[in-house]
Task: inverse folding
């Protein structure tokens, strides 16, 4: 999909701090999976590699989901005794 | 006599001891070397990762600052916003094409007509030296001084100070070339990423054998 040039994927530089602007841009590109996709498409990904990567990502997503739930459970705040067992 | 003989025997024993120790040490060293050569993958893994100019890609601390800053990103009326009296859409552009082996910097006017071109190869860096951040920075400083200079260089004098930058690709020159432009005295208004990424590309070339 084409986007307007100098509107999409653009970051303004504040106080001549080029490095900070670059970091923000790179962070966004990294988070949106653009850089990873770029690296992945430099060379042909063989079917076995594709399968392995997809399976790994699937497992990772399941693990992350469970871990997030666990963390949310530990950090939950609406309790009558906020720190059970500590008094 | 006896004492002398004892002395000699003790000396001999010490010599034997030393030689055994040395031998053992030698064996271990050679074994380590062999392992390094045999397991190439391990050696490659132990090497430092190549600089791709993507610093901050995995930095989580940047996320908070992205949320805070509102004027970091362009809006619908950005094209008409004035920078040193020039609207954003009329600012000249520096196109930087980065690859692992070279960096090409192209200076164009606001409409995209090329005015100057400079690459690490033209700059005098050859072969592997082209693909370094130092080469990219030197190239950027050269082309930057061409554009900022108020004297006649390359058929015209420009005296341009305010520019926008467009980067394409990943490589060691990604960050350093932008820094080089800044060192040449240019004021960079914005940085745009123009890396061509496709989610259904034609079949790429086969992987390199390592």
Result:
């Amino acid at each position: 999909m084409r986007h307007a040039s100098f509107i999409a994927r653009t970051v303004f530089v504040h106080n001549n701090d080029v490095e900070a602007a670059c970091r923000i841009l790179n962070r966004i590109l990294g988070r949106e999976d653009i850089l990873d996709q770029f690296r992945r498409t430099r060379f042909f990904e063989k079917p076995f590699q594709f399968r392995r990567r997809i399976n790994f990502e699937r497992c990772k997503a399941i693990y992350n989901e469970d871990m997030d739930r666990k963390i949310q459970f530990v950090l939950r705040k609406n309790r009558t005794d906020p720190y059970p067992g500590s008094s | 006599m006896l004492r002398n003989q004892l002395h000699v025997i003790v000396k001999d024993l010490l010599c034997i001891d030393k030689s055994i120790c040395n031998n053992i040490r030698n064996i271990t060293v050679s074994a380590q070397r062999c392992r390094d050569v045999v397991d190439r993958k391990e050696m490659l893994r132990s090497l430092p990762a190549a600089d791709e100019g993507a610093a901050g890609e995995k930095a989580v601390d940047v996320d908070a600052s992205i949320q805070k800053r509102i004027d970091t990103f362009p809006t619908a009326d950005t094209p008409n916003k004035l920078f040193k009296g020039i609207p954003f859409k009329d600012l000249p552009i520096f196109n930087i094409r980065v690859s692992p082996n070279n960096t090409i910097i192209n200076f164009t006017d606001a409409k995209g007509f090329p005015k100057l071109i400079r690459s690490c190869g033209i700059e005098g860096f050859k072969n592997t030296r082209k693909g370094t951040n130092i080469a990219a920075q030197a190239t950027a400083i050269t082309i930057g001084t061409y554009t900022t200079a108020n004297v006649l260089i390359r058929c015209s004098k420009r005296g341009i100070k305010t520019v926008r930058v467009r980067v394409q690709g990943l490589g060691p020159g990604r960050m350093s070339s932008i820094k080089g432009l800044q060192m040449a005295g240019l004021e960079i208004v914005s940085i745009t990423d123009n890396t061509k990424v496709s989610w259904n590309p034609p079949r790429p070339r086969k992987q390199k054998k390592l």
